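Consider the tokenized backbone below.
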């Protein structure tokens, strides 16, 4: 399974990474190596693990990497909540990103169930 670019969940996760980088650019400069870096890395981890899993030989291996991607999606959601609570992100941006990550989480779970 090495056709990760065709997977809708990978495409949506790539869009989430792009939006995360754009939205987090306005975070306080003192958070560059803190929350800014953390939320960006967790976002990047989602499509990266989906792609890496696609490159594995077995469905079991792919499912394991999807599990890591799902964990990163939940990590991202947690960091997003912290950003909202600290008022680093406007409520409208928070709601958009939260909706997107929930959709990605559900897509990963459904993909896992097909393996």
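A designed sequence for it:
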């Amino acid at each position: 399974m090495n056709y990760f670019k065709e997977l809708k969940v990978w495409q949506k996760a790539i869009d989430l990474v792009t939006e995360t980088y754009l939205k987090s650019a306005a975070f306080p400069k003192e958070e560059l190596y803190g929350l800014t870096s953390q939320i960006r890395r967790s976002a990047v981890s989602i499509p990266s693990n989906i792609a890496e899993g696609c490159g594995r030989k077995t469905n079991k291996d792919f499912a394991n990497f999807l599990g890591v991607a799902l964990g990163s999606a939940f990590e991202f959601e947690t960091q997003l909540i912290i950003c909202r609570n600290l008022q680093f992100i406007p409520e409208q941006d928070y709601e958009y990103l939260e909706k997107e990550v929930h959709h990605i989480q559900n897509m990963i779970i459904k993909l896992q169930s097909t393996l």
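The mean pLDDT is 96.
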